[in-house]
Design brief:
The structure holds 2 protein chains of 2 kinds. Chain A is mostly helical. Chain A has helices at residues 7-16, 20-33, 38-52, 64-68, 125-129, 146-158, 172-176, 179-193, 196-209, 215-228, 231-244, 248-260, 264-277, 282-294, 298-311, 316-328, 332-344, 350-362, 366-378, 383-399, 403-416, 421-433, 437-450, 456-467, 471-484, 489-503. Chain A contains 26 helices and no strands. Mean pLDDT of chain A is 81; it is low at 88-92, 117-122 and 131-158. Chain B is extended, with a radius of gyration of 37 Å. In chain B, the strands form 9 sheets. A 4-stranded antiparallel sheet of chain B has the order 1-28-27-26, with no helix packed on it. A 4-stranded antiparallel sheet of chain B has the order 2-3-4-5, with no helix packed on it. Classes of the chains: A mainly alpha, B alpha+beta.
């Protein structure tokens, strides 16, 4: 006779092995037999939550509404080094755009893509609603919809017969009295159903039931307020939670609130306070490094990333950021070391090989260069990556003066990604060398309209127009280039020459 | 030359006497003067106000901070000077206002005399043509043709009336002819600048002649009492600014800046210019300091010349010059040049050295230094926004002269942040040296492989017309696509450009390839009109996302040529995820 395992135990075992679907199925079966089995009910909510769970600390999406219709900003011109919104306000001595490419918001590109590294603050509504080069990452989303809606609907799709819990029929006050059920229920409502208002109701009642002494409920309240955009309320909740119990997560949430309120200095102080309590905590150190990086203070950011590596020597973000920093400060051989370390750790993707190829080329290890790019090409996941790899091969081709190959590569880059402004710019230069001025001009204009934050197309257009004698266009383009990169010496020189030319008889 | 020290010391040099930002003055340096109009020993400020450029021209007189008199001018003033015209006591100066071809002389602020410049020689042919028109021998159309013929061939230019007539539309001609044919044809010039010249004595209160520069490239010197032309001098070009020194009966020198960018120096003995200074750019200000001439140029430079036209020095300025004036303080023997700049500053130059910088709240357009009220060292400034400011030079003010001796530029001592070459780098170079041949071989092999791969991919892209840039030399086209919107409705804009040098492109169509289950398109197929080379043509269409699953897809755009199956261009548009839900 076969001995069957206790189904609840089996479900629990599945849950621990992260096989949530099986766990949920068994729980459903148990619940069919005895609908009031609280243990099974609770386990099922947890399983369903875990299926769609993403780390709330890392998720950060600033919606269009928050960006464009921000009423809380008082000082339009912040003092240098106190705001995340004005790029280039720090004295950190960040690299110039001539050395390290900039994003649309005017920050140097980072070595690691994470939420809010690419978005920045669009200057105009037009920029805000336009789909940028990489539609998957860089665009601001409308708040409370976007990814959250998608996650909600995705979970809906898995349950075609209807949701597991009907929130509208739920008596929240009853559940809030039961601490053993209310926490899992809250997480289910918050993460799985994405119903922040009901979650807030539940949390408010539960914290009342706990006589405002349970830090966990306060953190949850703070999370709800944060989602709803009530940053000051959420700050209050997190602060109060920290008074009860100091937890790393709470520090991270609170710092996130301060960053959203554009108070990077307060966030930094908070992180340091957290570090006093939890010395060497990696997430806190990373947070500090990220803020420094966003404020263009690359040197301090690198210092903190190094501290991170002392605690956790497999931290991918730190390695990638230090590597890219070395690459852009003219030490590709050290960057190569860092990227190789990533490779040894098992990161195996197109971007990494791409970077390795570039590092090898600039560190003069030519035998490895092209094979790295070939690997990168073999590993591409989408058209954008393919375009970037071809673009970099084009760079190598320009470096070894094989202009035919370079031309083909830039064209291919455009074929895979029609909005690749850098490729347009470089192609224009190659066309100009061939003497096709009209083509070159058209490409430069396209590049300038695709990426108004880049100074290169403007400057190239200015030099081109100056050469063919169209001084007025040249002057206009040079002024745009100056806006994008005020310290660019060649632009200044060109402007000076043009002004002199206009003044001379 | 650093100006930072000057700015900090500025409060110790100038007192703010008066500032009215809304004085409603629109004038320039040439129309501002200081004179004792009442004969009471108190100098007034006389301003020829240009109004709004077409009406509201006024002659304004300020006493202290108040406007005491205002009389309407008939036309735009081009220059204003005060001068003593007779020997009567009390010695009250008259004011001469130049506008158009006339000089209006005011005495005791009442109109006193009007002088008109003599007319110029009229083309005989033109006169004959108008006579025929008056006698009704030719109709307006024939008149126009004849005048055009005269304009193209004759060496004497046409009169203003004929030029106006040639610009008329056909229906207005008859009326114009009947209105004007009775009057005789006259050719009149206009005054461009005005100055004064002492008649016979060098005294402060000597009688002065008026010196007038006219558009006809002549300079006239007028007798102060009879207003007859004492002397007529001619120049190669129309004068714009002038400076006069000396006495008419003894010896004089007129320095004239002309519209051709040259400066001419006229002397008593000859009616032709004696010296000529050729500048590298247009002069915008002309001031005489002692025996030297200081010229402000359009290329943001100040240049000093001797009275014989020899260049002495050049100083660069931080901004374009708006106006210039002399600063002469005989009690202290101080002479300098005031230069109004477009960056809201007034610089004071003594020789080539910057001795003072005055910051002003607005761009200064009119400057005059002299005795105002009973104060000797007053600086009157009018601004672009219509303001009037008066500053008084402190008696304790000293202008220390610092020579801007050229030293090494400060950038020379800044150390460049060149990263040190690491040990790793040295090791790698060693490896490179030892395995040079192998590395080269490996690289060459990889290079050939990459070339092949690139060529293959390129050919594939070309054959399928995948690129957004047409490779066919017969139809050079370029396209890029932009998606706007949050969804479910998106706007898709295709920017198509013909990059050929001169040939237009015809017979193009656009079609889209998309998943009909996901998207619906307003116009999935449309024709492109003729594309002229150069401009970018935006074509817009609306796409609606019909799915609520939060998924997105690629939309392909093809530009096709009539009669060809392969597309000319292809663009892949990665549609963003629809973030709004469609209203159902």
């Amino acid at each position: 006779m076969e001995v069957t395992m206790d189904p609840l135990f089996l479900a629990w075992s599945y849950f621990r092995r992260r096989r949530f679907q099986q766990c949920s199925d068994i729980c459903s079966k148990i619940l069919e037999d005895s609908p009031y089995d609280q243990a099974a009910w609770s386990l099922k909510t947890r399983a369903l939550t875990e299926m769609v769970y993403i780390d709330e600390v890392e998720v950060d999406q600033e919606g269009i509404a928050e960006m464009m219709l921000d009423e809380s900003s008082i000082a339009q011109v912040a003092r240098p080094g106190t705001s995340l919104r004005l790029p280039g306000t720090s004295h950190g001595g960040g690299p110039t755009p001539a050395v390290r490419p900039m994003t649309q918001s005017g920050r140097p590109i980072t070595g690691f893509v994470r939420p809010s590294t690419q978005s920045g603050r669009p200057g105009t509504m037009e920029q805000a609603i336009r789909t940028p080069r990489t539609a998957s990452t860089a665009r601001p989303v409308t708040s409370a919809s976007g990814r959250f809606v998608r996650l909600g609907t995705a979970s809906m799709l898995t349950n075609p017969e209807g949701p597991f819990i009907h929130l509208s029929r739920l008596n929240l006050s009853k559940y809030s009295q039961k601490p053993n059920l209310s926490k899992t229920l809250f997480e289910y409502i918050f993460h799985h159903e994405n119903d922040v208002k009901n979650a807030l109701d539940l949390a408010a009642q539960a914290t009342e039931h706990a006589q405002f002494k349970d830090w966990w409920w306060k953190v949850q309240l703070g999370k709800c307020y944060y989602r709803l955009g009530l940053y000051r309320e959420s700050e209050k909740q997190f602060r109060s939670a920290l008074n009860h119990q100091e937890v790393v997560d709470t520090y991270l949430y609170l710092a996130k609130v301060y960053q959203r309120l554009d108070q990077p200095i307060t966030a930094l102080n908070l992180f340091k306070q957290g570090l006093d309590r939890f010395p060497g905590e990696v997430t806190l150190l990373t947070g500090i490094a990220r803020i420094h990086e966003e404020m263009n203070n690359i040197t301090s950011a690198t210092e903190y990333y190094k501290d991170v590596l002392k605690q956790d020597n497999t931290h991918v973000e730190a390695i990638a950021c230090i590597g890219s920093n070395h690459f852009y400060t003219d030490q590709p051989e050290i960057a190569l070391r860092f990227y190789r370390r990533l490779l040894q750790m098992g990161v195996y993707n197109c971007q990494l090989y791409n970077n390795l190829g570039l590092c090898c080329f600039y560190a003069q290890q030519y035998d490895m260069t092209l094979s790295s790019f070939e690997r990168a090409l073999a590993l591409v996941a989408n058209d954008e990556e393919q375009a970037d790899v071809w673009y970099n091969i084009g760079h190598v081709a320009v470096g070894i003066a094989d202009l035919t190959l370079a031309y083909q590569c830039f064209k291919l880059s455009l074929a895979f990604n029609n909005d690749h402004a850098e490729a347009y710019n470089n192609l224009a230069v190659l066309e100009l060398r061939k003497g096709r001025i009209e083509q070159s001009k058209a490409f430069l204009q396209t590049a300038a309209s695709l990426a108004p934050h880049m100074y290169e197309p403007h400057f190239n257009l200015a030099t081109l127009s100056e050469k063919i004698g169209d001084l007025q266009s040249s002057y206009i383009a040079a002024q745009k280039s100056e806006d994008a990169f005020p310290e660019h010496v060649d632009t200044q020189q060109l402007l000076k020459d043009l002004r002199q030319h206009f003044a001379v008889l | 030359m650093s100006s930072s020290a000057d700015v900090s010391g500025e409060a110790s040099k100038w007192l703010d006497a008066h500032y009215d930002p809304v004085a409603n003055l629109y004038t320039f340096t040439s129309c501002v003067d200081l004179a004792d109009l009442g004969g009471d020993g108190e100098n007034k400020l006389v301003i020829g106000d240009l109004g709004d450029g077409s009406c509201g021209m006024k002659l304004k007189v300020y006493r202290g901070t108040a406007l005491v008199s205002e009389s309407t001018l008939l036309d735009l003033p081009t220059g204003l000077v005060s001068f003593l015209m007779d020997l009567h006591e009390p010695r009250i100066p008259a004011v001469a206002v130049a506008s158009g071809p006339f000089i209006y002389v005011y005495k005791n602020l009442r109109p006193y005399f009007k002088f008109t410049l003599p007319g110029l020689e009229v083309n005989a042919l033109e006169q004959d043509v108008w006579r025929q028109a008056r006698e009704g021998q030719i109709d307006p159309l024939a008149l126009k043709e004849l005048l055009e013929g005269v304009r193209d061939t004759a060496d004497v230019p046409l009169s203003a009336r004929s030029l106006r007539y040639l610009a008329l539309e056909r229906e207005d001609m008859q009326e114009f002819v009947s209105l004007h044919k009775a009057q005789p044809v006259r050719r009149q010039t206009v005054i461009t600048c005005i100055g004064t010249l002492r008649k016979s004595t060098a005294d402060e209160d000597g009688v002065s002649c008026l010196v007038i520069g006219a558009e006809s490239s002549d300079v006239y010197i007028l007798d102060p009492e009879a207003f007859t032309i004492l002397s007529k001098l001619s120049l190669p070009s129309a004068p714009t600014m002038m400076d006069v020194t000396g006495q008419f009966d003894v010896e004089f020198r007129i320095t004239v800046a002309c519209r051709n960018g040259n400066i001419y120096i006229l002397r008593r003995e000859s009616t032709k210019p004696k010296y000529c200074i050729e500048l590298s750019s247009h002069p915008v200000g002309l001031v005489r300091v002692g025996k030297n001439v200081v010229v402000g140029c359009a290329e943001e430079q100040l240049q000093g010349f001797t009275q014989k036209g020899k260049k002495l020095w050049t100083a660069s300025l931080p901004a374009p010059i708006t106006t210039m004036a002399a600063m002469d303080l005989p009690t202290r023997g101080f002479q300098a040049v005031l230069v109004g700049l477009a960056n809201c500053e007034v610089h004071l130059y003594r020789e080539k050295n910057l001795v003072s910088v005055i910051k002003t709240p607005d761009v200064v357009t009119g400057l005059r230094f002299g005795r105002y009220g009973r104060e000797d060292g007053a600086l009157v400034m009018t601004t672009k926004g219509g303001g009037l400011a008066v500053k008084i030079l402190k008696r304790t003010a000293t202008f220390d002269e610092r020579d801007g001796a050229p030293g090494p530029p400060p950038a020379q001592s800044v150390r460049l942040n060149v990263p040190k070459k690491t040990k790793l780098y040295v090791d790698q170079t060693l490896r490179e040296r030892e395995h040079a041949a192998a590395m080269h071989r490996a690289f060459q092999m990889d290079l050939s492989r990459v070339r092949l791969a690139a060529a293959k991919a390129y050919v594939k892209a070309l054959e399928a017309g995948l690129t957004p840039v047409s490779a066919r030399p017969s139809v050079p086209l370029k396209m890029n696509a932009v998606v706007q919107g949050l969804g479910p409705a998106f706007k898709l804009t295709l920017n198509v450009q013909n990059t050929a040098a001169c040939r237009p492109i015809l017979n193009l169509t656009v079609s889209f390839l998309y998943d009909v289950g996901l998207y619906s398109m307003r116009t999935p197929y449309f024709r492109i009109p003729l594309l002229v080379p150069g401009p970018v043509y935006p074509f817009e269409t609306l796409v609606e996302c019909t799915s609520d699953k939060g998924i997105s897809d690629v939309i392909k755009v093809f530009v096709l040529h009539d009669g060809k199956t392969a597309p000319l261009l292809t663009a892949h548009i990665n549609m963003p995820v629809s973030e709004g839900l469609a209203l159902t």
